[in-house]
Specification:
Ribosomal Protein L13p, Chain: A, 4-stranded parallel β-sheet, 6 strands, two-stranded antiparallel sheet, 140 residues
Length: 140
């Protein structure tokens, strides 16, 4: 019996639509990361991008448990001395609510070039409308 290894040419990605309203951030990010990697398929191969496209709507209505809403901070660094900036989750939610889900999913993907490609297949929208109706995504 041979071990099946998927090839880039044979993979046929699907489109999935996830509504983030009322869902817990960490649990939602795990589901999204597994879909992006292709862990839900029998043809999963770690070194090949076998994942699907994921559309997330209502990103601004995602829920965090406990005191994470007040204590979570996002750090950015400009590259200059003293160029660290810390932003609270409430500030980020007001300006760019899609950033919260992107960062959570990014942290759950492997740290390599393949993960960077997988992350491009994630589309996050703050509201209920999205621009990928033509792809006919299946709801999860």
């Amino acid at each position: 019996m041979k071990t099946y290894l998927a090839k880039k040419e044979t993979v046929q990605p699907k489109w999935y639509l996830i509504d983030a309203e009322g869902q817990v951030l960490g649990r939602l990010a795990v589901k999204i990361a597994n879909l992006l990697r292709g862990r839900n398929k029998a043809t999963y191969t770690p070194h090949v991008d076998t994942g699907d496209f994921v559309i997330v709507i209502n990103a601004s209505k995602v829920v965090l448990t406990g005191k994470k809403e007040e204590t979570t901070e996002y750090m950015s660094f400009s590259g200059y001395v003293g160029g660290e900036k810390y932003r609270k989750l409430t500030e980020v939610r007001a300006k760019k609510p899609d950033f919260i889900i992107l960062q959570a999913v990014k942290g759950m993907l492997p740290k390599n070039r393949l993960a960077a490609k997988m992350l491009t297949k994630l589309r996050v929208f703050a509201g209920a409308e999205h621009s990928h109706v033509a792809q006919n995504p299946t709801k999860l």
